From TrEMBL:
Keywords: Repeat. InterPro entries: PPR_rpt, TPR-like_helical_dom_sf. Coiled coil: none annotated. This is Pentacotripeptide-repeat region of PRORP domain-containing protein. PPR repeats lie at residues 155-189. Gene3D superfamilies: Tetratricopeptide repeat domain (1.25.40.10). It comes from Prunus armeniaca.
Amino acid sequence: MKPHKLLNPQTLPSKLRPIFLTNHAPSSAPFSSLTHPENPTDPPPITRRSLLKTIQSSQWHFIKHLSPNLSPSLISEALFELQKSPQLVLEFISNVDFHRLDIQTRCLAIAIVARQSSPQTALELLKQVVGSGIATIREIFNPLALSRERLSVNSSIIFDLLLRACCEMKKADEAVDCFYLMVDKGFMPKTETCNDMLSLFLKLNQTERVWVLREAEEGKGVCWVYGEFGH
């Protein structure tokens, strides 16, 4: 039996040549939109109205998330709208990092919080501001005065609280500055506040300041009744 000859594909007619199928990668053009999705749309800007709704619904986790993007003017506008809700204002500023706010916004918030029945919270906030060292007493006093006028507040309790904050922190120089700022504006410190000053000066052995302040205030309605202050 004769052996079979192997055929050379090159010698075959074109019609008889074997067809070898090759795999080609499918075109990615039709699917480009799937492999390269469009950038997501930016979130809508935060407005005063949307911020107020978030605060009033007590969404504090969301407030903390928004905090870095809240401008001082937007926060100030929200605070003004919430002026009759001091507790809500307190919760709000507690969730936006009070220490990051500018001095004007802090003072507006404190002036609102001071409307609570107890002044202790406002006093503690003022001590934070005084202790931070970011502003002088005058730079704190003036925004407080502007906030008081803007809120149409008749009471001058906010200035007494600032003076008390200085006394409790044993900042005698700042207490004197605050005292004279009050007098220049026509606000008389309450008897309890005056006693706080006298107590501070006596503890610091600064009795000369007691006499200077008493002479400055003679005839202006300030009562000096501290028990240890002698004749």
